[in-house]
Each structure stands twice: as C-alpha cells, then as structure tokens.
C-alpha cells in the first residue's frame, strides 16, 4: 500500500481538483483521505455519503464548579492564556481561550476545577461515487488539535486500505506549513506539490518544500496556470530544477477547473475527452510510475 | 477600527483584497496599517513595494532543564498535558515543539530545575509599503505554534498604531489561527468565491464567527463564473454582501506578477469603493 499526499502551501492552487481526479481515475483501487479538516471540500466532488460518523475526542478544558470555588484567585494567577476571569462570587473559564494545560487544576486547593475532555470534531467514513471509500473529518467550531485529527484520519484511511487490500491511499493535504500539514506528510510514499504561477504561489511552494525536505520524502510538482506570467514561471522552473524536483505537469489557466467544481465533478469526470482531463490522466500515471521506481 | 479579512477556503483573494484596500485607503489620505497574520505563508509583502524598517525576533517561552538540583521526581512530566516533557531514568527531556508555554512544569518544580527561557519561533517585521506600514508575522519552518505569533503580531499593531484603520490579513481555515486573528476585531470580512467549495467553506467560517459573536459580512470574489449558491445563502441567512468582484482573467494575470489591481482594473476599484462605503455606514 502506497500513500500519495497532495499539498500546496498556498490555498486555491487546484490541489483538490487534482487529487479528486486522481481518486476518480483510480476507482476502487484507492482509499481517499481528505486531510483538510479545517475546510474540507473533497466530499463535494466525490459525492460522499457520510455513512459512518464517529466523535473525535481530543484536548481538555478546565471547568470550575461555582459551589466549590472560594474565589481565592490561585487559578487566575497561574493561567498564562487569560482564560480565567472573576465573577462576583466565583471564577469562570473562557472555553475559547483555555489551552487545556492543566495548571489551574493542579494548583486549585479546593478541588473546584475539573479537566473535561472535549469533542473536537467528527470523523466520517463515506462511500464515494467511484465505488470506493473515503475518510474525512470536520473540526469542531473554534476547536484545536487539527494536527491530531489529521493524524487520526490518515491512520483510519491506511487501516481501511490495508484491510480491504487497496493499492493506494490518495491524501488531499491541508494548506499552510503548520501542524496539520506536518501530520499530513508523515508516512507518505510520494508528495505531489501543486503550485500556481504567481509570486505568492512560488513563495509558498518554497516554504512548503523546505518543510517536506526535512522529512526526506520524494517529491514531484504540478505547475498550474503556467501561462499567466513568463518571468514567475522561469523563476519557478529554476527553483525546481535546482532542488531536483521533477515537474510532472504544466497546466494552463483554464476555467474548466471552476466549471467542473460548480457542478461538483472531478475534471476527469466532467469532460473526460478534454485535453485537460487527458493531461491529468497522464500525470497520474507518471506519479504512479515514480512511486514504483 | 480593526477589520479582519478572512476566508474558510484558501486562495479566494484575502491577500489581494487586503493589500489593495490598504494601498487605496492610503491614497485617499487615511491612516492605515496592514498586518499579515498568515504567519505560515505570509504573502502580502510580495504585492507591495516594501522597504524593511524593523525586524524583531518573536519568541516563545519553553522550559530549560538544569540538572544541578533536580531529583528526577517526575512531577514535570506528570503535570505536562501536552507530552512535551519526558522523565528518563537519568535526565529530563523537553520537546519544545510540543510545548504550549503554560509554565506549569517550571513553576511547580520543587527544585526549580526547569527555568523558562526564550526560544525564537519566528519574526515580526515592519515594512514601509506604498505609503503605509505593513507588519508581517512569519513563523519559522517546522514551528507549530502559529497562534502565539499571531497574537504577538496583533499586540505589536495595537501598541504602535492607535487611531489607525487596522486591516488584518488572516490565515485560511476556521480553526485556532483564524480565531486568534478575528476575535478581537470590530468586524470580519469573509472573502469567498461563488462555487460549491466557496460556499461550503463560507458556511464553516460563518459558524466560527457565530461562536465568537463577531460582526461579519461577505465579499464574493470571481463573481459570475460559478453558481449562485453563495448569494442565495447570504440572502437566506441575512448576511450582508459587501461587494461582488467580477471574475476577470486580467486580475489573475496582474496577481500572478505581484501587481496591485485597483489602478488598472476599474471594476475592482469600484468594489473597493463599495467596501469603503459599507464601513463608513457601519461607523
């Protein structure tokens, strides 16, 4: 079982359009995994049915029992997150600010504080339209621990792939370079960097590649909207060639991306005979070859 | 006035809007400061004519084991709720990336063997940009504590720019970094695009704003290319649509090369005027 992780650093580069197309092409041979737990989209393109739902419990917050609280203020004094404030007769915890560090609980001499584990989101297993299965999640509103949720989604996807003897896990990573991305990358067989030709696309590509390099993972790159700016494209190609990253596809600016998205279809399903769809199919085959190598 | 420019989905035009709006407001004689809070991938400076004026290292506090008086009692590892401390038979190991800087281990240590020390986590830079100041938070690679750097960057802005219009360019998503970038603002502008992705992520962002009891409105970008889902949703939910920015390949081209748009694209400038009019009405 091999895992392909698609990431981009910058949002809106076409990451999900590509990964959903790969998933669609590979059909039952791949389990799909959406690691953008913060703003997941892949379920829209693959018609996920949300057939199984589990709570994701993670992280704690402090809760003060007003009747036991003597208003001594010890908890207030130790909290570094300004999460505790004083009411008339007792102290209260602001749920959003509380980091769950346990410090107030430790110092409270009146046993007025308990640490309560929180539901941080939902994890879904869905049937998708190509007959395969997909793991995805929804982080709770204002919840933390997105990195841990990503790790959980990935683990579940891999277990499912191993159990049902699938050859691939196709993972749509999250944007940025922070904890969810770091979690997305772990254990990848190959990383597909999706970028777009723009000054910000290049900037974010460099940052996210630096991160990937630290994991020592093989990388290939898809350049989207390559025809928007010659100079930026040249800089981008120079950077990639210097780092020894193979460019597996150069895709022109094409409104088909948005059109396909608007009727909730991966590009290869939307118009399979188009040149764009054929390029994506070819790209997927190249990526698979690179894993075998 | 402090306004956060946010979005659930990435790549919808947050940075385009905040850089152009800052620059345009400056030409209208307003006192503006722009803060780039997308500390994982800060991009604003790429679209502006910047000159670095000041650079400050941002630190986080982490415990530093001093073995002298340590009895290896293990209290520190026991108290840490983030598994950032491990007590081994002959030493205490601190995993700084996992540390949330709560000070519990340090202050509860019976022998004071874990004094806190500063560790660099990123930078807060001040640029002179097109006649206004740009404050950029930039997280070091591999560092996970974006929220702390975002809050330090906002603190810097609050301290130094009293009486300015403060525009905060937020990171994408709906989780802790966005919350930190939004919770203390007067208003949050949610930038979205008129596609099912845009709508899905807008709904998530709206839920987050509701949890925060925030005032918010929507800017629809790339209007005309997708469907009318976003517009209908906003109407049903009575969310103000501040402006609609027409889909335009010329915008994509100028953006690609890192150029500002309002001087070259009249309909884009009209949208900025609509945003400004909206806020003047709010005040």
Helix content of chain B: 25-40%
Parts with pLDDT < 50 across at least 5 consecutive residues of chain B: none
Order of helical and strand elements of chain A: EHEHEHEEHEEHEHEHEHEHHH
Distance between the termini of chain B: 9 Å
Strand order of the largest sheet of chain A: 3-6-7-2-8-1-9-10-11
- What profile does the largest beta sheet of chain A have? 9 strands, mixed
Per CATH, which architecture of the largest domain in chain A?
3-Layer(aba) Sandwich
CATH topology title of the largest domain in chain A? Rossmann fold
Strand content of chain B: 25-35%
CATH class identity of the largest domain in chain B: Alpha Beta
Gyration radius of chain B, rounded: 22 Å
Order of helices and strands of chain B: EHEEHEEHEEHEHEHEHEHH
- CATH top level assignment of the largest domain in chain A: Alpha Beta
Contiguous helical run count of chain A? 11
Report mean pLDDT of chain B, rounded to a whole number.
95
> How many strands, what sense, and barrel or not for the largest sheet of chain B?
9 strands, mixed
The appropriate CATH architecture of the largest domain in chain B is: 3-Layer(aba) Sandwich
Strand neighbour order, sheet with most strands of chain B: 3-6-7-2-8-1-9-10-11
């Amino acid at each position: 079982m091999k895992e392909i992780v698609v990431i981009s650093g910058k949002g809106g580069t076409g990451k999900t359009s590509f990964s959903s197309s790969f998933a669609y092409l590979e059909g039952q041979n791949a389990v799909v995994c959406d690691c953008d737990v913060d703003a997941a989209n892949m379920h829209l393109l693959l018609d996920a049915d949300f057939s199984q739902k589990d709570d994701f419990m993670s992280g704690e917050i402090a809760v003060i029992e007003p009747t036991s609280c003597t208003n001594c203020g010890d908890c207030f004094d130790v909290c570094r997150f300004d999460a505790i404030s004083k009411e008339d007769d007792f102290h209260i915890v602001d749920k959003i600010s509380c980091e769950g560090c346990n410090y107030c609980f430790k110092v409270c001499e009146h046993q007025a504080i308990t640490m309560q584990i929180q539901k941080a989101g939902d994890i879904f297993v869905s049937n998708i339209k190509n007959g395969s299965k997909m793991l995805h999640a929804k982080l709770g509103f204002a919840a933390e621990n997105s990195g841990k949720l990503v790790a959980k989604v990935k683990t579940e996807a891999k277990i499912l792939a191993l159990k049902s003897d699938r050859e691939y896990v196709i993972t749509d990573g999250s944007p940025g370079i922070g904890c969810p991305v770091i979690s997305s990358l772990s254990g990848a067989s190959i990383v597909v960097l999706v970028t777009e030709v723009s000054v910000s696309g290049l900037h974010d590509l460099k940052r996210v590649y630096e991160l990937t390099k630290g994991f020592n993972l093989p990388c290939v790159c898809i350049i989207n909207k390559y025809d928007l700016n010659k100079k930026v494209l040249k800089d981008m190609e120079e950077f990639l060639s210097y780092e020894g990253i193979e460019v597996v596809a150069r895709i022109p600016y094409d409104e088909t991306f948005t059109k396909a998205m608007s009727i909730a279809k991966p590009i290869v399903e939307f118009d399979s005979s188009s040149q764009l769809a054929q390029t994506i199919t070819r790209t997927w085959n190249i990526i698979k070859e690179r894993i075998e190598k | 006035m402090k306004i956060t420019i946010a979005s659930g989905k990435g790549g919808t035009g947050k940075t385009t809007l905040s850089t152009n709006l800052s620059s345009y407001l400056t030409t209208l004689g307003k006192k503006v400061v722009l803060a780039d809070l997308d500390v994982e991938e800060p991009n604003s400076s790429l679209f502006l004519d910047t000159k670095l004026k000041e650079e400050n290292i941002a630190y986080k506090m982490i415990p530093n084991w001093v073995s002298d008086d340590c009895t290896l009692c293990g209290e520190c590892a026991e108290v840490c709720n983030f598994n950032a401390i491990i007590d081994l038979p002959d030493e205490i190991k601190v995993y700084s990336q996992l540390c949330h800087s709560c000070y519990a281990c340090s202050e509860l240590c019976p022998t004071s063997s874990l004094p806190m020390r500063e560790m660099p986590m990123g930078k807060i830079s001040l640029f002179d940009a097109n006649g206004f100041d740009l404050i950029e938070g930039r997280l070091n690679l591999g560092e996970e504590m974006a929220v702390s750097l975002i809050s330090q960057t906002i603190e810097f802005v609050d301290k130094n720019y009293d009486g300015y219009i403060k525009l905060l360019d937020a990171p994408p998503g709906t989780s802790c970094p966005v919350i930190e970038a939004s919770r203390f603002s007067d208003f949050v502008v949610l930038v979205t695009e008129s596609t099912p992705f845009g709508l899905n992520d807008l709904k998530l962002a709206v839920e987050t704003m509701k949890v925060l009891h925030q005032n918010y409105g929507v800017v629809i970008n790339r209007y005309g290319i997708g469907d009318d889902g976003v517009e209908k949703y906003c109407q049903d939910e009575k969310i103000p649509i501040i402006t609609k920015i027409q889909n335009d390949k010329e915008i994509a081209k100028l953006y690609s090369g890192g150029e500002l748009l309002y001087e070259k694209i009249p309909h884009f400038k009209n949208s900025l005027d609509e945003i400004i009019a909206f806020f003047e009405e709010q005040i």
